[in-house]
Amino acid sequence: MPSSPRRRARLLPGGLGLLVLVALGACAGPVEVAIPAQAEAPACAAASEHWPAEILGEAPTQTEPSDPTVIAWADPAVIARCGMPALGPTENQCIVVDGIDWVAEDLGDGTKLTTFGREPAIEVLVPDEHGPAPLLLPAFSEAAEQLPTNDYSCS
Questions:
Q1: Which residues does residue 125 pair with via DSSP β-bridges, in sequence order?
Q2: What's the CA gap between 48 and 127, in Å, rounded?
Q3: Where are the alpha helices (DSSP H) in 18-153?
Q4: Which terminal CB of the chain, N or C, has fewer other CB atoms within 10 Å?
Q5: Contacts of 75 (CB under 8 A, 6+ apart)
Q6: CB neighbours (10 Å) of residue 109?
């Protein structure tokens, strides 16, 4: 049986880079992600137990590789990864949602949201097609609360 054709859907920067591939046909194939360097941290194991059950009305989709510290929803994919390096001081927009600090960075075709003052960090990549990215952050509050804090905050 021939494999389904694939097309490049989006290249989103983020740490080591993240290539999202979408299979053509009746259903989307797995979302290809890079596993962050600190994904094996105990805090990421705890955070992954609190990933949202759905985003934008969509259940999680399969990722490649499959790892509990990375998760994706929808098409184009909203991707969350735990194990990113903690951010240092930044001039990027910093917002607080449910008591969790996040740094927002415009990627041109989407937004990268990274926990701020947490180590390791969670990164959430939201394509522009899904509207204002910060509106999705409340769904990630429980996961982010599992990460230890450091000396940085938005205020």
A1: 79, 112
A2: 21
A3: 42-48, 141-144
A4: N
A5: 22, 28, 61
A6: 12
In the 8-state DSSP scheme, what is residue 144? H
The DSSP call for residue 59 is -
What span, in angstroms and rounded, lies between the C-alpha atoms of 78 and 19? 12
Question: If we measure between CA atoms, which residue out of 38, 43, 18 comes closest to residue 124?
Answer: 18
3-class SS of residue 80: strand
Residue 35 is given by DSSP the state P
Cβ-contact 70, 80 below 8 angstroms: yes
**Which two tokens mark 43?**
């805090």
Q: Outline where 10-118 has alpha helix (H).
A: 42-48
Q: What is the pLDDT of residues 2-31, one digit of tens each?
A: 333 332 233 334 432 333 333 223 346 899
Report yes or no on whether pTM surpasses 0.90: no
Q: Please write the tens of the pLDDT for every residue from 79-107.
A: 999 999 999 999 999 999 999 999 999 99
